[in-house]
Amino acid sequence: MFLSRLEIQGFKTFAKKTQLTFLPPKASRSPITAIVGPNGSGKSNLADAIRWVLGEQSLKLLRGKKSEDVIFSGSEGKGRAGFAEVSLTFNNEDHAMPIDYAQVTIVRRLYRDGTSEYLLNGSAARLIDIQLLLAQANVGQRSYSVIGQGMIDHILVSTPEERKAFFDDATGVKPFQIKRHEAMLKLTRTHENLADVEMLLREIEPRLRSLKRQASRLEQRGEVERDLHRLEADYYGAQWWELMGHKGETKKAFEEADKEIKQQRAQLARLEKETERVERSETGEDASLTALQETCRAFQKKRDALRSQQFETEKAIEMARVKAQSHWAPLPLLKIVEEVEEMVRGLRGLQGLRGLDEIIKGINALLGRSEKLSKNLQRPNPEDIKPDPALLAKLKELREQEENLGKDLAKAEAQIDAHLSQEKTARTELIETQRTLREKQTQIHLLENQRNTLQIDLARFEEREHALVREMDEFMKERAVNVREGDKGGQRAQRGQGGQELYPEIQHLREKLELIGGIDPEIVKEYEETKERHAFLAGQFEDLEKAIKSTEKIIEELDEQIEKQSKAVFSKINKEFERYFKMLFGGGSCQLVKITREEIENENSESEGGPGFSQSAVVGENAVENKLERLKDPVVGVDILATPPGKKLKALNLLSGGERALTSIALLSAIMAVNPAPFVVLDEVDAALDEANTVRFASILEDLSRSSQFIIITHNRATMEKADILYGVTMGTEGVSNLLSVHLEELTQNGTARR
Ligand code: ATP
Question: Which is more confidently placed, 744 or 614?
Answer without folding.
Answer: 744
